[in-house]
Design a protein that fits this description.
Elements lengths: L13 E4 L5 H12 L3 E6 L5 H9 L3 E6 L7 H13 L4 E4 L14 H28 L4 E6 L12 H21 L4 E8 L8 H5 L1 H10 L12 H8 L10 E4 L7
Parallel strand pairs: 1-2, 1-4, 2-3, 4-5, 5-6, 6-7
Helix pairs in contact: 1-8, 3-4, 4-5
Length: 256
């Protein structure tokens, strides 16, 4: 009988993790590396050099890439570079994201479009490139999209972000329906309130931070490593019969 722990190994797999310069992306990249994957770590405004250096110094294999995913042409350029340097992509984690906070009536169209391009359109573009590559090789694959609690809720003063993350959840299901017969599982993780740069304004607001913590049964903000287990599960053979689902990692927020 196969050892259950072997199902979580990622030896000889190549993973591309976007938005991996720090925070959640860096934690997920580190976890996949520790399970044996070679990882391409992407930074949106700058290369994820520190993440790559940390992984390589620990005995893993990582290469850093940079692409501004607010550009409609950046996703294809990034995927092409990763394939050229690492040969293939077996696992894609679409983690890169941006947020713009403003009242809905004051949100500029250009800000709306930038958020949708980074958070949703580039997710589709990279998923499409990855799936084409997997299908051409007749190889199984994993695509993990990073959704949000705002895939389910509307939020306040973040209309573009809420729309984009709602779209990520629905896109995940749509792609899963098409690609499951081809051996590609497409799932999403919806993180709760994590201590990252995106939540700095919330954590700095004493009233809002208190209100958030009061709603979380775990009574704390999530730490990036709290996402590592779910990411590894969905990247591995252990999740071969899981597709089209959105897993919440939220300290119990959605259950309250």
């Amino acid at each position: 009988m196969q050892n259950i722990f072997d199902l979580f190994r990622l030896d000889n797999k190549v993973a591309l993790i976007t938005g991996a310069a720090s925070g959640l992306g860096a934690a997920m990249a580190t976890a996949l590396s520790q399970a044996g994957a070679s990882v391409a770590v992407h930074g949106n405004r700058r290369p994820a050099d520190e993440t790559a250096a940390s992984i390589n110094s620990a005995g893993g294999r990582a290469e850093a890439f940079q692409a501004d995913l607010s550009s409609a042409t950046a996703a294809e350029a990034l995927f092409t570079q990763v394939k050229q340097r690492l040969g293939q992509v077996d696992i894609l984690i679409n983690n890169a994201g941006t947020i713009h906070r403003n009242a809905a009536e004051d949100t500029l169209l250009e800000d709306w479009q930038q958020v949708l391009q980074v958070n949703l359109t580039s997710v589709f573009q990279l998923s499409q490139f990855a799936a084409r590559d997997m299908i051409s090789r007749s190889a199984p694959g994993k695509i993990i999209n990073i959704a949000s609690l705002l895939s389910f809720q509307g939020g306040i003063r973040v209309p573009a972000y809420a729309a984009s993350k709602g779209g990520v959840a629905q896109l995940t299901k749509a792609l899963a329906n098409e690609w499951a017969p081809k051996g590609i599982q497409v799932n999403a993780i919806a993180p709760g309130y994590f201590a990252t740069s995106n939540t700095e304004p919330l954590r700095a607001d004493e009233v809002r931070s208190r209100q958030i913590l009061e709603r979380i049964p775990a009574a704390r903000w999530g730490e990036p490593q709290d996402l590592a287990g779910a990411a590894l599960f969905l990247s591995s053979r252990a999740s071969d019969y899981v597709t089209g689902t959105v897993i919440t990692v939220d300290g119990g927020w959605m259950g309250r």
